[in-house]
Design brief:
Layout lengths: L25 E7 L5 E4 L4 E8 L1 E6 L2 E6 L3 E4 L5 E5 L6 E7 L2 H4 L5 H11 L6 E4 L4 H19 L4 H23 L5 H20 L6 H7 L4 H12 L3 H19 L4 H7 L5 H12 L3 H7 L5
Helix pairs in contact: 2-4, 3-4, 5-7, 6-7
């Protein structure tokens, strides 16, 4: 059951990976973020993770924070999030992605009513950092690690233990929701919805010549509001995000097809091959030709 999680998304940034099975909707992952970051995505499942080595930068909705080994994070359902290594050295993450019904069961059950609905129906709660120095956070982290280990080992009754430990973690979070006083404002919630629309526009049109005005227009806001929204929500500009997204799609095409580099550049919105090569090298540390060669796809 243990595997690295290779995140793939649709045009809405919704993850296209099935986590676990319909009978046991939970999966555990062991990720090396120094090799591959977790890109922007969202899913209907809950997610929890623990940093086991190195340091990472996490963005959950409109919240951003850095985590060291022993810390972790929790993400609510349908919340846009991403994480990446802070430094290029070894950086590892234990993560669990599970559907709320694993804990909640039927809609009428006391488990669902008492421990799941207070979390998933709280639109002001996008998620949280789990700080190992905070006593009850440490209890959550310990429960998550036990669940992860049980999921990996798949020993007798492992599914019961995973469900129990995740239930303990969810119960602690639900019990502390009021005391946490999530300070997500209506404006931040609105920003989150706007950014989803603008990212959807970018993923659907990145091969075309699109401008900040086009991106802002997709969410019916001004260019200045678009810039503010991008900076506040994902910490970058729409132009930079577009450029990075184009390079990621180009890298994917270079890795999986024999299409010429010039054609891939054009398909990904780069009409100037020299600019494409320069940008690719800046972001990937190598030229498109060398990148393809390293993937074993050169002629």
């Amino acid at each position: 059951m243990l595997s690295p999680c290779h995140t793939t998304v649709d045009g809405y940034f919704r993850e296209q990976v099935q986590h676990g099975t319909s009978a046991f909707p939970c999966a555990c992952y062991y990720d090396d973020l120094s090799k591959e970051e977790v890109p922007w995505h969202w899913h209907n499942e809950l997610e929890a993770a623990i940093v086991t080595k190195g340091s990472i930068h996490v963005v959950i909705g409109s919240e951003q924070f850095d985590l060291a080994a022993g810390d972790g994070f929790f993400v609510n359902t349908s919340v846009l999030h991403s994480c990446q290594a802070l430094f290029p050295n070894d950086c590892r993450l234990h993560s669990l992605v599970f559907h709320p019904r694993l804990i909640g069961g039927s809609a009428e059950s006391s488990f669902n009513q008492n421990y799941i609905l207070p979390i998933v129906q709280n639109k002001r709660f996008a998620g949280m950092r789990l700080d190992k120095t905070v006593s009850w956070h440490k209890d959550v982290l310990d429960s998550l690690e036990e669940a992860w280990q049980a999921c990996v080992q798949e020993s007798v009754f492992f599914d019961l233990k995973v469900r129990y430990m995740l239930s303990c973690a969810a119960a602690l979070i639900a019990d502390h929701l009021e005391s946490m006083h999530p300070d997500i404002s209506p404006k931040q919630l609105r920003d989150s919805e706007r950014i989803k629309r603008m990212l959807q526009f970018i993923t659907g049109n990145y091969g075309e010549a699109i401008s900040t005005a086009d991106i802002s227009g997709s969410a019916s806001i001004s260019e200045s509001e678009c810039l503010r929204c991008f900076r506040a929500t994902i910490g970058t500009t729409p132009v930079r995000f577009l450029r990075e997204y184009r390079i990621e799609r180009a890298a994917e095409r270079l890795s999986t097809t024999q299409t010429s580099i010039a054609e891939i550049a054009a398909e990904c919105g780069f009409q100037d091959i020299s600019y494409f090569t320069k940008t690719f090298r800046e972001m990937k540390g190598t030229t498109p030709k060398e990148f393809r060669k390293n993937k074993g796809l050169s002629h």
